Amino acid sequence: MDEQTRLMHSHTGVGMAGHPGLPPHMQEGTGGPDGDGRKQDIGDILQQIMTITDQSLDEAQARKHALNCHRMKPALFNVLCEIKEKTVLSIRGAQEEEPPDPQLMRLDNMLLAEGVSGPEKGGGSAAAAAAAAASGGVGADNSTEHSDYRAKLTQIRQIYHTELEKYEQACNEFTTHVMNLLREQSRTRPISPKEIERMVNIIHRKFSSIQMQLKQSTCEAVMILRSRFLDARRKRRNFNKQATEILNEYFYSHLSNPYPSEEAKEELAKKCAITVAQVLNCGNDPAVITADIWGMSSVSNWFGNKRIRYKKNIGKFQEEANMYAARTAVNAANASSHGSQANSPSTPNSAGSGGSFNMSNSGDLFMSVQSLNGDSYQGAQVGANVQSQVDTLRHVISQTGGYSEALTANQMYSPQGINANGGWQDAPTPSSVTSPTEGPGSVHSDTSN
DNA sequence: GACAATGATTGGTC
DNA sequence: GACCAATCATTGTC
Fold it and tell me: Which parts of this chain does the entry mark as a DNA-binding region (predicted)?
């Protein structure tokens, strides 16, 4: 038995006597014989209302019409409305003021952080295009991965918003429909505006639970996408030959202190086509997609691994070191013969770096090459005597017949930079202090280290 | 498939 | 936070 029925039954039992909502003509005879008759009359009316659902449609319509035309209908209707409103208020009081669902809040926060909900943050194709442009055509693999990630995230975002709109539209339509229905019914049964409001809230709660499912699914999709993206990043890929050569050139030309600065790492990463820090969705938004530093971290990893493996097995790397020394020296000679040093590409940390390195002019190389002739290193002279270095190198090459064991025996690349503790010396390196190409204002981690 | 090479990760140190 | 050392896990070569 529903609430309305119960209320009506309780009232039919005791009658309407003394109720403040009853008009005088309904209260006057509560104690007399005429009052009993009217009580019976009200009882009959209520009984008819209660049994109306058991009747056929036609009968019910006829009965409904009769009841609507009944002389006591307005009074009785008012009383029922009042009773119901009071009851509903007490129910509402217990149900309202629900705290926000923490699960929903978590989902909302996550979707906001991932850039799925909230304002568009330049993601999607725009970010993908920016990433591709920033990579400058190099590091295509990584920028492609970024683009894919952004594109898929945008796809998720679009689906989410489309579905959300659908749900909102359906919710509004259903709410409007129910409200109209209730308003229509309020002419025949007691339905207060507050009850309609309550019903609307119930509908909204139901739809918000559907929305929560949508948000949950979206979060899961983003998580899966992200984990796949990270897995793809973790997957090891060997650097190509050119990249390895560039890194090796830098390493061996800075052998006395092979610690590239952040700028140098970035330059190396660019030059090696290892995608460098492409900050997607940057700005003041705290929910920035993690600024990607894998280009530089890869370079850092490479140097970390190289330092350790070189130190562990210097002999094994000796030949490699000599090879790079020779190559770099030749490059230096070629560069100098084609123009002054001022026109040569700047070192990574020089002001106005053009993005390419001239490893050839690093002090370590000159130190090594010159030491072969028994000359002490004099950085200032090095810059001015490039031709003599070329000659020296040619001499070395002709004497050794290439880079053979004899050269190795000369310790062309002695582990000079490694101190007794197994670490590299702190002494300032020629590359940073007296390097001909680096001005006094040049900042280099080699010196800082 | 074994093995070496190598990029990435992890835990510790400074 | 950068670095080292050890280790893992994948790739490339034979």
Answer: 232-314
In three-state secondary structure terms, A297 is helix
- Distance (Å, whole) CA A416 – CA A214: 63
Residue A407 neighbours by CB under 8 Å, 6+ apart: A322, A396, A400
Q: CA–CA separation, A63 vs A53, rounded Å?
A: 10
A361-408 pLDDT per residue, tens: 444 443 443 333 333 333 333 333 334 333 433 433 333 333 333 333
The residues of A between 93 and 112 with beta carbon within 7 Å of nucleic strand C are none
| DSSP output for A21-84 | TS-HHHHTTSSSHHHHHHHHHHHHHHHHHHHGGGS-HHHHHHHHHHHHT-TTHHHHHHHHHHHH
Render pLDDT for A15-63 as a digit per residue (tens, 0 to 9).
444 444 444 444 444 444 556 666 677 777 778 777 777 777 888 788 7
Nucleotides on strand C lying under 7 Å from protein C-beta: 2-7, 9-12
* A351 Cβ nearer than 7 Å to chain C strand: no
A233 CB below 7 A from strand C atoms: no
Give the C-alpha separation, A412 to A422, whole Å. Answer: 20
Question: Are residues A431 and A364 in contact, defined by beta-carbon separation less than 8 angstroms?
Answer: yes
Which of A316, A295, A152 lies closest to A237 in space, CA to CA?
A295
Check if residue A362 sits with its Cβ under 7 angstroms from strand C: no
